[in-house]
Amino acid sequence: MELKVVRPNMGANCALRLSVIGLIVVGGLAFLATGDSAWSEGGTPVPGQVINGAHRTQDEGQRIYEKANCVGCHKWHGDGGGGYGGAALSLRATQLTRDQIVEVVHCGRPGTGMPHFDREAYKDYRCYSGLTAQDLSRDLPPDAATFLRASEIEKVADYVLNHIKGKGPASYQDCTDFFGEGSRACDVYKNISGRHSQAIGTEDQQ
User: Fold this and answer.
1) Which of 33, 102, 117, 153 could form an S-S bond across to 144 if both were Cys, CB 3.0 to 4.6 Å?
2) Alpha carbon of 180 to those of 30, 46, 49, 55: distances in Å?
3) What is the pTM of this model?
4) What is the pLDDT of residues 96-118, one digit of tens each?
């Protein structure tokens, strides 16, 4: 009996492997093009990502401002408005000094919805000349959802001072600085000039 050795078609196998690799690469590129989208399922722009192909240069303090969800109450523009804890202070109009901003972020604001972002506030970290949790009782600020390190709090304070405090009404340039050039979130600011943003009311969805 004559035995025949059947050799695999190496050329076909190589072609198949190359086809599979090609599909993976193409799929990966497609994911990068869409997975880094700056829009959530509800159409809300997500800061810090790619918007219409434009990358935003992000300030480190801004990154922390977003990480700590300061935008939840103070909004991206810092002008405040309705939020999870009620009407938030306008950081654009605030008269607080840098040291006071740092303390407020560390310790929150007693009797309000402004949380403390320092895990050790009213414990190892002295707040407002030594107030304790017992002193404040029901007025003790709530815990933040995300605690920050002291260095991060310093950077947030610098971000507020350099980009928000005393800067007047939010503008189209402010919006594109935050979200990136080409963001649809900023379209509403294009035709607004010299007025306190009528767009501010639309920012509750940001």
Assistant:
1) 117
2) 21, 10, 8, 6
3) 0.67
4) 999 999 999 999 999 999 999 99
